Input
Amino acid sequence: MRTFSFKLTASLLVLGSAVVPAAAEDNKFYPGTMCLGSASLNTRIERPTTGRAINAGPGGFTFQCPIVKDDNDIARARVAVIDDSPIDNVDCALRTRHLGGTLSVRTAATGVAAHGSDPEELTFVDLNADDEFAYYILSCVVPAPYVGTDGTVFKSGIVAYHVTEND
Amino acid sequence: MTMKPVTIGIAVIAASSLLVMALRQMVGDEPASAAAPPRSAATSAPMRYAVPIRAGAVDQVHAELAGLRAEIAQLRAGKPPREQLSYDEQVALSKRRAAAKFAALDKAFASERRDPSWSPQAETKLRDAFATADVAGGHLEELSCGGTLCRYSVRFDSVAQREDASDAITSLARWDSSGFGGPAADDPRRFVFYVSRDPASFPTVAVE
Output
């Protein structure tokens, strides 16, 4: 009788979970190492095993980070960056490129005061992408490595990013 | 809170299959079990016990499944499948939406009043950002900020240059903002862009 009860309970649990509506959001987390550099051949990107993408110099450049578009719009997004430059910001832009060449854009910046090796979070509000062929782009301008007076090199980069789509 | 109908369908079919299998095993009406040889003690497989089951339980499960299927049909009715358009139709739809957004933004911008504490500084920041962006073939034609919204247009020597620079010229605002822009309807070499004072102050534009 106990076997019967167990099987019936398990079956009903499976059935029950099938009819509970799924969350109306689709979350995806990406490591910064997925970001690609879009600059000159002189650009050097470090990809340590921590999963980050670091600008190793010599200049500042733009990282392009891919985002999978499963649905029609982004509810919110955030990107964790390291801005270790005391003179420049990390500037990020989240875009939807629509058919016909129009772009919907959200921008966020660290501010110079962010200087430090701890990741800082930049956040973006909702972004529309209702065209079937529209796609998302996250790009971040990451400053050049900064060399301190004692020769220490402070490098900036992308740690990770998280995109929530409306299901 | 909705769930994709296809996902619901797959989940319900899988769950109902499991349930029916479990019930069949319990009541002993599994077709294969009748022909299967008796287990020997040497196999040391767990013994299967015949258990009593309330009369009508299977019918009740079938009734519940029918109810669930009806619920799925109801969900499907509430959310019509996405309209399948050809690529050309999608392009045309996208252009109509863009035209509607531009019209709404033009209207919102025209109704704005300058804010002396923000508008001049924002214009300077955007102008400086354009100068440092070194946009190949791009000429800043117009730049103006109201109380919460700025509008600027950049004219390029070619459409290809406009395409190459679309990233740079939509990133001129080095503050948290929302923006929208694209090629001008009357001149594809000109890119018009609207950017807001902060993400929340961007006008809400309802499109089809």
